[in-house]
Each structure stands twice: as C-alpha cells, then as structure tokens.
Specification:
The complex is a heterodimer of chains A (389) and B (343). Chain A has 389 residues and is an alpha+beta fold. Chain A has helices spanning 5-23, 70-74, 79-86, 94-109, 115-144, 149-168, 190-213, 216-222, 230-235, 241-244, 252-255, 277-300, 353-359, 361-365, 370-380, 384-388, and strands spanning 30-34, 46-52, 55-62, 177-178, 181-182, 320-328, 331-339, 347-351. Classes of the chains: A alpha+beta (389), B mainly alpha (343).
C-alpha cells in the first residue's frame, strides 16, 4: 500500500483546487446537470457539477432514478424466485449476481453443491465476468472519444454470450443457479466451444491493447487523471479492479473464497501502482485475460458426478443469518440474508459494488475538467442497476 | 467554359453558377456521407451499414433527409430566437463561400481572384461565428460549453492552417489557386517533369500540418471537443432538431469536402492528372471529377482518423497547436523561403 509520487502530487492538486479557483479572476459559477439522461452515464445516474469555466468545483452524484426495490421485493418471494430478481442488478454479468445469494442460502441450509456444480458455477461466474468487462474495455474508449472499439467489444462479447446461452438458456438473465447446485448439466460440445470463445476473447484483448491502451491520446487522457490513493479508496469502500488499480492487492476470489473453486487453479491477481484512470483500465484488461485462463484451466478439470445436491422440493431455509460476498465483475458483491425459517427470506441486504464505487466521485471530481469527469466515471465503471438495485 | 458563358445573359450565367455551386456542395457532401459515414465506417466496425434503402443502401441519405424534414423545428423557450435560427445558415454560408475560389478545370471555376487562398482562409473563419451563435443562442449549458470550445479551437488552428499554406504560396509565387495548380502541373522535380511537381513532395511538412489543422477546423476526432458526444451530448448542436440539425450535419460533410478540395488543390495538383496538357479543354470536363477523386481520397484520411482515434482534451489540443504545429509551420516557411532564394 505504498503511495507513489504521482498519487501524492495529484492528491495535493485535488485538495488545492477549491482554493485555486477562488483566487483567480472572479467569475460566475455554473451548475451543470450531467444526467439523468446523458450519453455518458450508462443509464440514469445524475452528476450535479458546479463549474468554474470548465473546471469542477464540486460534484455530487444523485442516485435513485432507477431504484426498483429489490431488497424489499425479495422479502415476498421464495428463495428460488429471488434469483430472477437479482439477475437484473448488474445486467452485464447477470450470473455473477446469483452466486453470492445462492451461497448464502446454501450456508443457511447447510447444504453444499456437488463438486461438478461448483466447478461449472465457477466457469459461468468467470464467463459473466468476461461478458461484463469486455464491454467496459470498448466503452472506455467511447468515453474518451473513440467510437470503433465498442463495436469490437460487442462483436467478441457475443461469443461469450452464446456460450452462456448454450449452457443456461438465457443470454442476459440466465437464472440458472439453484440452491444445492445448478439447474442443468452442460450440453454436449460446450467445453470445446468455450475454449474457442476464450481464444477469441484473448485475441480481442490483444486488439484492445494495441488499439486503445497503446494509443498516445488515450494515455494522455487517462494517465494521472482521477488518481485514487489506496487509503482514500479503502475508506470509501472501493472494491474490485478500482482498488486493485490503486495498488491494493486484495481479491475475494483468492483471499476469502467460499463455495467457488478459484483456489483449484493457477492464476494471478493484477494490481497497478498508479491508481489513475489508465491503471483501472489496465487492471481490467489484465483481469479479462486472467479470467480466460481461469476458465481454460477449470474446463480441463470439471469433475464428473451429480449436478444437484439433495435438497427438498419446497425450500424452507432454517432460521439464521448469513453474509456471503464474492468478487463480482464490478467489485465485491455481498448478500446479507436473514431467515426466520419461512419460504421467503425475512430480510435481504445487498452490498453492491457500484454503489460504493460511485460514492467516491465527490472527492475524486473536485478540480478536474469537464472532459475528465467522463473518463473518470467511465474508468470507475459502474452499472446503474448495481447502484440503485 | 468562360467563352461559352460570356455569350449568355447575366441571369443565365448566375443560374448556372448557383446550380453548379449547389451540386458541388450537396452532391459531394452526400457522396461523402454515404461512402465514408455509412459504408467505410461500417466496414471498420464489422457491420454492414444501411442496406435497405436503394441498392446497398445508397438512398439512405434521402430517407434520412425525409425523416429530418418531417421533424418539428423546436426552438428552446429561453433561446435567442433569431440567433438560434440563423446559426446553421451562417455555418453553411462559409462552406459555399469557400467554393467560390476553387478551380475545377482551366476555365471551370466561379471567380478568378488573385487573392484566392487568402480569401478562402478568410471566409472559412465565418463558420466560427455561426458555431458561436449556435452555442450562445441555444440557452443550454452544453451548447454554451461546446460553442466556447469550438471558438477557442478554431481560432487556435486557423494559424497553423494559414502558415502551412504560406509554404505553398512561396513555392508557387502566387495566391491564385488556379495558378497554384498550373505551377504544380508545369513544375519539375530536379529536372524531371513527368508528373509535374505536386507540392505534397516538396511541402510534405506543410501538407501534414494542413491535414492536422484541417481535422481540427472540421471538429473531427481527435479534435472534436466542441461536439464531444460522450461529454457535451452534441455540443453546440444539442438543441437543434429537424431541418436545422440537417443543415449542421450536411454542413459538416460539405465543409470536409471543400477543405479537402483546397488541400487537393494546394498539395495534390488539383484538377490536373499527369501526362496530359494542362491547357487541354478536356480538363474542363474531367477536371472536376479528378478533383472529386482526390477529395474522396483526402476525406477518407479524415474519416479514417476520426473513427479510430480517441479525443484530446481542450488544453492538450491548444498545447499541440501552439507548441508544436505553429513552430513547425514557421520552420517550414523559413526552410522553403531559404531554398526558394538559394535554388
């Protein structure tokens, strides 16, 4: 958790911004509403930015335009029905949303999925990570102004979506995870096709590396912009690639695994010391590559056996409470499930990554210019459904 | 063609010129929209582009125009109505004025003016006023930011654009665009005159600066902060709809065509093709087509860059103009001048 010189300088610059703005020629400030309908906010996030010229004096995110009340709705649904809801939280990597909830329910019921189900669950978990982050890799280029890479992202994301669809029947909302295992076994030929898709994703990563990451303008726009020092990031509750880009070597998949079999394969947690927008992009790019390697290795060793553990047809979860978190594409996602022994949960609290990741914006956006708002928001990478739930 | 025109009465000549001007701007703009925006970019982005309207979607632009004409012409309540409504026409006027001095053949041009390129550079600045009008008149913060950005950017890039032209003017010893073409057609490269002397060879630095500055002048990526879709929605065009948006849209491509035509005249020999006599009357017919071919080539470069590169930030753009392009252009002028005197 060392603070680099660049981080320190940018930290000082951000803090001095308020003072500097007022010392210069007195001008009238302007309040700019970025959103709720704006091309750069992926939905309905609203940023109220007080500007001095093009410099941001203060910025505040306004959330709640897409609140759908999933936590409350989950209280009136049975446990298997809840997965249908929570699929829609992070809609780009839907399957990953189901996993922590199912794991929490399994922990309460004291059942464990058979090894085969655990392995396939992990494969699908990583596939949804790839489906999610490939879109980010293209989308980040759009935020910086290059239109073409996002089409490549959509083109190659298709291969992964096809595999998710072949295995689960749903492209975007699989609803495939069950308490005690999975709904179905894998179709024939799926493993070979998935390997091929992984090769295409790796080629896509190389393409993005040349086209976007290596581009001088992209580097000029993102390096040293939106620097998050590790201590600040941790105090705002940043997780996932956002905090790893600040040099914090922390990944739930490795450090506190529960129910998924990431510890069975050989992989690496990527970190970057800089903490700027470029670092966040770089870490996600490496993570996508790493995820393809994880999938490849997992496919080698899927054990045989049943796909479901023995669970009753009508699921009643014994009274108790459980909190399970996993390293989802956007960061750490956790479900705190309280059961009173009924058909439906008494209370579900969803800890979603984007909510915390966006909460740093008032600190981060002070003193930056309007174009940098967009690159910083883009690099923080949030999904509106994940913020508002 | 001048000979033919001199026998006609004033209104006939004027009508022919107006029609020729409209065709030269709108047909070129339409072709560029189809060839580059609809097709080339689609192939770059692994998609087909429009395929339904006409063969290979060639009538898509007509469909788009039909769509835009049906839309309501909305003026924001707090907008400065006259300024808001006039702005697109001011921008388009600058495009048409640029066309006036462009030669399409030995006799096929609108006016013979010894201040040719000087006039072109002067009227190209008129579009800045239109963009500022649009940005200010819209009563929208995004538009205002876009308009201000555009003004700062276009003023900064007028200078390298102009300085890049000076090298050509020194070499051709004239500002008349027709004579610049003839100087290239009749010139020799170290005594070898088969292809003439297109100034792209001797003025390569000038050509590079001109193309970069032109990219900025056209507000295309990587210099598209004034419209910056992901930041300012569409900058100064945000509040426009229907016909007026269409005028901005056509103006963008028409200006790209006309600026590329100026670049083609200055650096690629204009309407001249090597191997023919530049005084040949044939050039009055094929000259415009040759020029058009060169325009398509240069606009291809413009749009290739536009759809590949990310966008610079405003301060990075100014730094590039003042700290890199202007000194380079000045050095180019010095070298050209010294060589002109010595050789």
């Amino acid at each position: 958790m060392t603070v680099t010189e660049r981080q320190q300088l940018s930290y000082i610059a951000a803090q001095a911004a308020d003072a500097r703005v007022n010392l210069e020629i007195e001008t009238e400030g302007m309040t700019l509403n970025i959103g709720p309908q704006h091309p750069a906010t992926h939905g309905t996030l609203r940023i109220v930015a007080k500007l001095d010229g093009e410099q941001v004096v203060a910025a505040e995110p306004v959330m709640g335009y897409m609140h759908r009340g999933y936590e409350k709705l989950a209280e009136v649904r049975t446990y298997p029905q809840v997965t249908t809801l929570i699929n829609r939280i992070d809609w780009l990597g839907s399957f990953a949303n189901e996993v922590p909830f199912i794991l929490a329910a399994e922990r309460l019921m004291e059942v464990e999925a058979p090894p085969r189900a655990q392995w396939i669950r992990t494969v699908l978990f990583e596939l949804s990570r790839i489906a999610n982050i490939t879109l980010f890799l293209g989308d980040m280029a759009v935020q910086v102004g290059a239109i073409t890479p996002v089409f490549f992202a959509f083109r190659d994301r298709e291969h992964v979506l096809n595999q998710i669809e072949a295995a689960t029947g749903g492209r975007f909302h699989p609803n495939f995870d069950r308490i005690g295992g999975l709904k179905d076994d894998l179709p024939a030929g799926w493993v070979a096709e998935t390997r091929q898709a992984m090769r295409k994703i790796r080629a896509f990563c190389d393409e993005i590396e040349e086209l976007v990451e290596g581009n001088e303008i992209f580097q000029a726009r993102t390096r040293g912009i939106g620097v998050i020092p590790p201590d600040v990031g941790l105090s705002y509750g940043l997780t996932g690639a956002n905090i790893r880009a600040s040099g914090v070597d922390w990944d739930v998949r490795r450090d506190s695994p529960c129910g998924l079999v990431h510890d069975q394969v050989d992989w690496k947690v990527w970190t970057h010391p800089d903490g700027d927008s470029f670092a966040r992009f770089w870490v996600r790019l490496q993570e996508t590559r790493e995820a393809t390697k994880i999938v490849d290795q997992l496919l080698d060793g899927i054990p045989s056996g049943p796909i479901m553990a023995k669970v009753p047809v009508i699921i009643k979860v014994p009274a108790g409470e459980a909190y399970v978190e996993t390293e989802n594409p956007l960061g750490v996602m956790g479900y705190y499930v309280v059961s009173k022994g009924d058909l439906n949960p008494f209370r579900v609290k969803i800890r979603s990554a984007s909510f915390s990741n966006v909460s740093i914006t008032p600190w981060l956006l002070r003193g930056v210019y309007v174009p940098d708002i967009i690159t910083i928001l883009g690099s923080l990478y949030f999904i509106l459904g994940d913020i508002d739930r | 063609m001048i000979g033919v025109l001199s026998e006609l009465s004033y209104w006939q000549v004027t009508s022919i010129r107006v029609v020729a001007g409209l065709v030269a701007v709108l047909l070129v703009a339409g072709t560029l929209v189809y060839a580059h925006l609809f097709k080339m970019v689609s192939f770059m982005q692994s998609r087909l582009g429009p395929m339904e309207a006409g063969p290979y979607g060639s009538l898509q632009l007509m469909a788009e125009i039909g769509k835009f004409l049906q839309k309501e012409d909305i003026v924001p309540r707090r907008a400065d109505r006259f300024v808001f409504k006039a702005a697109p026409f001011v921008v388009l006027t600058s495009t048409f004025l640029l066309l006036v001095v462009l030669p399409g053949g030995p006799d096929a041009w609108f006016i013979s003016n010894d201040l040719g390129i000087y006039l072109a550079m002067a009227v190209s600045s008129v579009s800045v006023i239109g963009i500022l009008m649009a940005g200010w008149g819209s009563a929208s913060k995004y538009s205002l930011l876009g308009g201000l950005r555009a003004t700062g950017q276009l003023i900064a890039y007028e200078l390298p654009l102009l300085l890049a032209v000076v090298g050509v003017v020194i070499q051709a010893e004239t500002m008349n665009l027709q004579e610049i073409v003839l100087a290239q057609a009749n010139g020799e490269i170290f005594g070898w005159g088969v292809i003439g002397n297109p100034f792209i060879i001797t003025q390569f630095a000038g050509f590079a600066i001109f193309m970069i500055a032109m990219q900025a002048e056209l507000t295309q990526t990587p210099f598209d902060m004034p419209v910056a879709e992901s930041e300012l929605v569409t900058g100064y065009m945000t509040e426009y709809s229907g016909l007026r948006f269409l005028l901005f849209f056509i103006g963008e491509f028409a200006t790209a065509g006309v600026f590329s035509a100026i670049a083609a005249v200055l650096f690629l020999g204009g309407w001249y093709v090597p191997g023919l006599d530049p005084a040949d009357n044939l050039f009055n017919v094929i000259g415009p087509l040759v020029l058009f071919g060169k325009v398509v080539l240069l606009t291809f470069l413009v749009f290739w860059v536009r759809f590949t590169f990310p966008r610079l930030r405003e301060d990075q753009l100014q730094r590039l103009a003042w700290k890199f392009l202007v000194p380079l252009a000045l050095a180019n002028i010095v070298v050209t001048g010294v060589l002109k005197v010595v050789v």
